[in-house]
Every structure is written in structure tokens, then in C-alpha cells.
Amino acid sequence: MSKTVSGMVVTDVSAFAKSIRRELLARETGTDHRPVSHLELLNILARSAGFRNFQHLKASDRKVDTGFRTIRCEEEASCGAAESPLDARETPEPEPVDHRKIEQILRCFDASGVLLRWPKKTSHQRLALWWCWAAMPSRRDLTEPEVNVVLKALNGFGDHVLMRREMIDWGMMTRSLDCKVYRRVETKPPAEAASLIARLQERKRAGIVPRPSGREQFRLARMQAPPAASPTSP
What we know:
Shape: elongated
Helix content: 40-55%
């Protein structure tokens, strides 16, 4: 009978250890002085890795988007363990890039890389946030005001808090339990995110103004059209 094994590869041991330490200190200073149970310890480890809890870690499919990749293998009773995917020697195939999707998301940004409007589709929102991830200082702790400075500079629709919250939920950043310490998760962006970041960097250097969509062109044409003449009485 096979057994599903869940594991993690920690890419930033220092940040991982700090997060665990904060959780344990918060527990010691609280009212609950019972020994940490097995399940509680699993939840602490999962939260330190950017997940909501251990169940979220087991169910999550975000293997590349977070800095702590989840590995699943089937442990066979006959051999003890299956080969880890990380041991494979085959060269992985390049991820496909939907260039039409990239063009649609680019229309949400201005020439300087400011997100003018929040995309409607969740997949578009997630890709757009990778641009914010790329702008965050790497490999150091950040305060909430420092994070807000970066996001406000990239926000053109008046809700940088939404962007900050979504970056936490998508695993692009970690946040301490007291919401005072933030840190960018160091990971390789997906192929589409890397393509979007490169296009926005190129546009920013060249000062290219994004081409409006057909609906936007129609709206601009109506705004620029002269008002209709009012009927005059004979």
C-alpha cells in the first residue's frame, strides 16, 4: 500500500528560521503554555513556508510560484521511497507563453510601468503582480511602509492595499504574524511572468505608449467627438 508523502525544499533557510522563531515566541508570550502538538508544529512549518496551514501545503499546486517548492512522491512499501522529481536528469520542456494574454495585461499599464487598472481575470491579476514582485527589494526584511512606498509608485487605481494583500495570498511575499515584517519570496517567475516583466522593462526604457484596445479606442473617440448641435426653433 502506497503512502503520500509531502515535503518542502526551503530556498531561504534564514527567512524560514526567522518565521518559525516568531511563531514560537508568539506562542510562549501568549496564554497557551501547553507543549506544541504534532499538528501545531506542522502548521507552524507550513505557515513559515508561505502556506495558510499544513492542509493548504498538501493541497497546494503552487510548486514554482513560492520559494518553498512542494514535492509529492509515492512511498512504496517494497523499496521505501520513490525517486524525487528533483533527481530527474531530463531537461524540462520550456513553459508555453500566451503572448495574446501578455498583450492584454500590458494594456493595463502605462509607459512608466504603473498599473492603471486592476485586471478582471484572476490569471491576469496574478501575472500583473509579478511586476510588483520584481520591483520589491530582494533578500531583506521590509517594513509595511517600505512595501507601501513601492506599491504606491506602481499603483494607478488607488488601492495599493489590494495589491499587497494579493501578493501575500499568491505567495510572492511573506508576512510575519504581527504584520510588521515583510519579505519577498526569492523564486524564479513563471515563463509568462518573466515575459511580462521583460516587456514592461523594455517599454519603460523606450517610453512606448501602450496601444489601447478596441473598446478603449471607441470610448476615446466618443469623448473627443464634438457635441451634437441642439435643434433651433424656426
